[in-house]
Design a protein that fits this description.
It is built from seven helices and six strands, in the order βααβαβαβααββα. By secondary structure, it is α/β, with parallel strands linked by helices. It is globular, with a radius of gyration of 18 Å. It binds farnesyl diphosphate.
């Protein structure tokens, strides 16, 4: 069985570029090209949800020039490729904070989200200015307001209440999380949602993560024994 929801930490663009003697931006450009190939492959394998970690809450600490380059690439992606995705029946959703993004980018995101709302093909989720801790923090604020406005006892809080207030509400938890570039870290990605996710850490840098490697990872997922804390009968 293939996973219903794949999430990917697309790491190693900078190292890919450095190994080739190229500027970091070339690595990010190659990363966007690879991302498109992975989206197509995900559709071909009938996977319903794909979440891509494009920019973390902590990525703001990078040099301004690199942040600008990444935002420019994102804006191009939203202007060109995301429109093509709409034609391919993809529903696009962006998770993360929006108040620190440029207004023009927020406008692009909102437009595509509204236009693709009714699409029922692949659910493509881009994590942008996303951090798992921030996701949980903002959920706590929402819950506090809802509970205090309605005089609800905090003791009655359920796991469903928390899930409903996360940025990923309505999206099933990721079954498989892939990280490229040989690093073994979660880097603040989907902390709550990954409680029972399977992980796959791949040595190659993101631009070299080709469809064949991806397909092998998907197939090996099918052999895993997921018990969710239970016993296998
Ligand atoms: C990690 O490589 C990658 C990122 C921080 C951003 C991922 C972004 C893209 C694939 C392109 C932009 C995305 C969209 C949706 C247009 P790194 O820079 O951390 O690499 P390094 O660890 O080798 O330096």
């Amino acid at each position: 069985m293939y996973p219903e929801h794949v999430a990917i930490i697309m790491d190693g663009n900078g190292r890919w570029a450095k190994n080739k003697g190229l500027p970091r931006i070339s690595g990010h450009k190659a990363g966007v090209e690879r991302l498109k190939g992975i989206v197509e492959c995900t559709i071909n394998y009938g996977i319903s949800y794909l979440t891509l970690y494009a920019f973390s809450s902590e990525n703001w600490n990078r040099p301004k020039t690199e942040i600008n380059d990444l935002m420019h690439l994102l804006s191009l992606f939203l202007a060109n490729d995301a429109k093509r995705f709409l034609k391919e029946n993809i529903r696009l959703r962006v998770i993360g904070r929006r108040d620190r993004l440029k207004k023009s980018i927020v406008k692009q995101i909102e437009e595509i989200e509204i236009n693709s709302y009714k699409n029922d093909g692949l659910n493509l989720i881009i994590a942008l200015d996303y951090g798992g801790r921030e996701d949980i923090r903002s959920a706590i604020i929402n819950i506090y307001k809802e509970f205090s406005n309605n005089n609800i006892s905090i003791e009655s809080l359920t796991l469903k209440d928390v899930e409903k207030n996360l940025m990923t509400t309505g999206i099933p938890d990721p079954d498989l999380i892939i990280r490229t570039s040989g690093e073994y870290r979660i880097s603040n990605f989907l902390l709550w949602q990954s409680a029972y996710s399977e992980y796959e850490f791949i040595k190659c840098n993101w631009p070299d993560f080709d469809n064949n490697i991806y397909i092998k990872v998907l197939q090996s997922y099918g052999k895993r024994d997921r018990r969710f804390g239970k016993l296998n009968e």
